[in-house]
Amino acid sequence: MTFPFFMPPGVAFTNGHFTAENIITKVTHSGDLAGIFHDQTAWRAIPSETPIYQVEMLSSAQGEGELYVGTTHLNPGRVGDEFYMTRGHFHQRREQGEVYFGLRGSGLLLLQNEQGEARLEEVSPGSVHIIPGLTAHRLINTGTEVLSALAVWPSIAGHDYAALAQGFALRVVLHDGKIQAKEVQNG
């Protein structure tokens, strides 16, 4: 009996790019991130077409029990004293978790629960991050090269950006040549 062999999609662990057909790519530009950075004057000074990050996803089935696989490529840079970051989100289905794998670059994963308690994890090649359900998450590039992280999450999870309209509880900035986390004062 002869069995057919299929070549599955692949990812280059040195740069996080997929080798597959039907890759879905989305680029998020500075102009797409209104209200994300603290220093709005510095944000407006950046051309709105400046790419901040790109997400590549494998085309996947959707539904209960199915998974998405994608890679985020976050450029280095700052808006004022704040490092480039992804928009960040909760999942629409809050109980759904996610896993990140650091591939290249250096940065931080900002995690925050629904009560506003936040923590940071270092992201680097080989790091593994288990993001539990009920937890918002955001990547922050604190390095000088592209930060790439591979992610796996349930296709039913969805994204809820509106729940973070007031932002995250922490900002990551460069102050006196040092990376620092500062609490956000709302109100």
Topology:
Layout (H helix, E strand, L loop, with lengths): L9 E2 L6 E2 L3 E7 L10 H6 L5 E8 L8 E8 L3 E2 L2 E2 L14 E7 L2 E7 L4 E6 L4 E4 L3 E7 L5 E8 L15 E6 L2 E6 L4
Antiparallel strand pairs: 1-2, 3-4, 4-5, 5-13, 6-7, 8-11, 8-13, 9-10, 9-12, 14-15
Which secondary-structure class do the elements indicate?
A: mainly beta
User: What is the count of distinct domains?
Assistant: 1
Q: How confident overall, as mean pLDDT?
A: 93
As a percent range, the share of strand residues is: 35-45%
Largest sheet descriptor: 6 strands, antiparallel
User: Can you tell me the CATH class?
Assistant: Mainly Beta
Distance between the termini: 70 Å
How many helices? The count is 1
Please compute the radius of gyration using only Cα atoms.
Answer: 17 Å
Fourth-level CATH superfamily: Jelly Rolls
Any idea what the CATH architecture is? Sandwich
Unreliable stretches, pLDDT < 50, 5 or more residues? none
Protein name: glucose-6-phosphate isomerase
Keywords: Gluconeogenesis, Glycolysis, Isomerase, Metal-binding
Pathway: Carbohydrate degradation; glycolysis; D-glyceraldehyde 3-phosphate and glycerone phosphate from D-glucose: step 2/4
GO molecular function: glucose-6-phosphate isomerase activity; metal ion binding
